[in-house]
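In response to a reviewer's request, we include the raw inputs and outputs for one of the modeled complexes. The two entities were modeled together in a single run.
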Amino acid sequence: MTEQVFIRKASGLTRVIGPWSALAYAFMNPGIMYAFLYLIWTHQLYPGVDMPIASAIAVPLMFIPALLYIWFSISMPRSGGEYIWGSRIISPAWGFAAGWSLSMVGLSWAGSCIYWAISYGANMVLRALAISQGGANFANQPLWATANLIDSTPVLLPLGTVLIISFMAIMWRGARASMLLAWIGVVSGTIGTAAFVLGVFTGGGLPSFITGFNTMSGTTYDAVLNAAKTGGWPVGVYSLGVSATGGITYVALNSLGSTYTANIIGEIKDVRKSAILAMLGALVLFFVYWEIFYSSAYYGFSGDFWAAASYFAPGGSGSGTWNGWPLGAVMPMPNLMLAFLNSNVWFSIITSLGFAICTYASCMGMAFGPVRNLFAYSFDRVLPTAFSSTDRKGSPWAAVALGAVIAEIFFIINVFYYTWIAYSILAWFFAWAIVGVIGIIFPYTARGKQIFEKSPEIVKKKVVGIPLIAIFGVLTFIISITIDYYMLLPFLQGLASSLYIWITGTMFIIPSFVIYYLSRIYHRAKHVPMELQFKEIPPD
Amino acid sequence: MRIYFTTDVHGSTVCFKKFLNAAKFYSADVAIVGGDITGKLIIPIVQQADGTYSCKHQGTPYALNNQDEVGHLRKRIEDQGYYPYITNKNEMEDFAKQTSKVDDLFTQLMLQRVEEWVKLADERLKDQKVACYVQPGNDDRYQIDPILDKSQRIINPDGKVILIDESHEMISTGHANITPWDCPRDEPEEKLAEIIEAMASKVKDMKNCIFNFHCPPYGTHLDQGPQLDENLTPKLDAGGAARMTSVGSASVRNAIDKYQPLLGLHGHIHESKASERLGRTLILNPGSEYGEGVLRGALIDLDKKGIQSHLFVQG
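The model returned the following structure tokens for the whole complex.
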């Protein structure tokens, strides 16, 4: 009886998204098949990595930032995420910096990953067919030449632009169409991953791959491994430390977007249960997907082969150094290499199509939240008000158009500097470091304390007298700056161009402060001062 | 002239206190609450046989050992817009048997809080020049009107044409079109149109007029709510996103389209914070976050030429 609460009939109860739907939303945003490419990239930048171990280390680590997001979502259960938390607890400039950095990373991925959908997904269908039909002569097949043509800049640029316009048009059409595409992406990714795993196991695993590769590639498995070793690349050497660092960058990278749920928390009912289920549940699902994928990739091709292949692959230290490498400038994607392992080319085709569709859908998913943010920033006067314009149907066309332009810019950059996108993660973790700081000071600053004290009991829980949210904040900050350090490591070791760092800094991080303060100065002179926006009125 | 507009505080004492300080804080000349000032939930704090108290609030069970703990929780519940009610097991059993008693209790607690707020407003605004308008909304029972009318500093603008400065008139209504919850001031569209027309016909200078209508106009970004099925359950799309639809008033929309006032101030749909132009009319809904003690509002700078600028604020 004591648990009863009396509710009267009243309007305005509009939280509608349930816990399971929130989980689906969290799981749909990151591209689950990006892992196929990260298998190569992680080996390139972290020689000695073991991906199944990296995944096992990294995914649980991501629970900590997820817990910080959950705690904030329960404390301030309104939509807006980092922008609102930062603006209320530190200052609007820092809130905007966190929100802007994450939004730009999202849009940059939306643009850049279109390249992946074409080159590493759809185009691999043609290449797999060429291998299947031409055997060792695959590079002279018309299908291989067609794939090369599609990969060329004059074709890739307009094709990618059309695809960016197409998913932005779906977004412009509305949330229903966007969600439908996201679901298609999840289903395609699941089918694609399943086809890969089935292809590996029904094809006979590593012995079949070695046989197929030795027969159809024009070189041999052993020759590839030996050539990489001769080039000084560590093949057959595995390190737990390297696996941990590689994992927390690239596996963690693949889980980003699952915290987008915090941005729509105002529309979610039963916030505590939903936030926990969505943000932790999505990580558990990712863990299952990726462990299955990475283990299958190692079972079917061996970690040694991925280490060696990544060395000769585009972006690798040994790229272009050995004429015997059969794929030249083509990325040795697992979906393509499957054509050497399993004589039934359909496994490779379905995996590649799954990758293409899943990645295309994820481009829309990665842009969806940022476009909403651009609209909100315009609404709050930080960006020009023109970007909050809507059409007759109420769709925010100006924010969608701005998002499309930003995505297109990053797509063009990616066509010419195809690995730079990996370093945009610096900006993501810069933003997460800010969120970590917000968590640390939340219970202690005058302003944060007021919100903290009004929060549900779970948010106020303490361990040895320290609020849990502050502990999550400290750990998130440490994790974020550690990942940023490891992202910088390849530059410090000379494995990557410092140009990428400058692109990341100038496009993702610095503009947020410039935009905010320019806008503030402009409004102070002509309009209601923006600094009033998040200032708390003293109640007493 | 600077207007501070907020809405849908729904019983939150901390939000109302912030509202009373808002004009000074934002240097506003006029402060307006656009409706829905009463709360929606009663949280019983039940005295146990051993003299302690128990309560369940937001899913968390509380065992309260002394009056200090009870007082602390009471304040938190009040700040969130709910009504704490100290009771015992026998009375709780009575409530379970006679639901009309719960309804009477709601009225009693709502009136009590509005009285406290009016008293506080009269004290705090005594020496301030700000013009303070507080109107009921569709969720508010009619019994609160006489309490607002008794105030020395608060003006209830509902149903009136008020000249808020030398050049701007304001007409106001807290009524809304029919909602699925059958609220006290829900009205059919035809009746709502009559209420608006009765005021609009008396406005002298429509181009400088402000429509302070609790309900937003139909078919805008200010009125997006979830589509409900016959069981009042929201319809969801694939992925769990709510299927949103316009739930505002066609009468309000028609009036704005017809008269093209300077400004429309609206609330009602808490999650639909938005601003939009309907012809020359700027319409605003700052949304509501009363449960977290955050007072959402809008600042609007006006002069004789029209609207100079506006900004949404979270105080």
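As requested, we also summarize the result in words. Chain A has 22 helices and three strands. The mean pLDDT of chain A is 87.
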